[in-house]
Amino acid sequence: MPYCDGASARRRRSHFTDHKGCNRSKFADIWLPDGTVKSLSIEGAAILQGFPSWYEFPKETATAGSIIGYSVPPSFATQLFISAQSKLFGVTV
Prior knowledge:
Blueprint: E1 16-17, E2 23-24, E3 28-31, E4 37-40, H1 42-48, H2 61-70, H3 74-89
Antiparallel strand pairs: 1-2, 3-4
């Protein structure tokens, strides 16, 4: 079995396998400074990434996680576009 950090290596039930070959039962684990591990749901990750509340993801965790993981938050895309426009055309917005 590939090396896995923390709780993900001890999970028995899984929905998908991550890039290290570790079984995962939640979308992402958040490690707090006190050592507590909290699991981030697909819905929580989508909110952090800027998806609107009405957006529907596929039921399969791996597919939904990939969509969220490869997405670019709208606020970042806006700032990137404004910066590029400013450099290319000398336009300040």
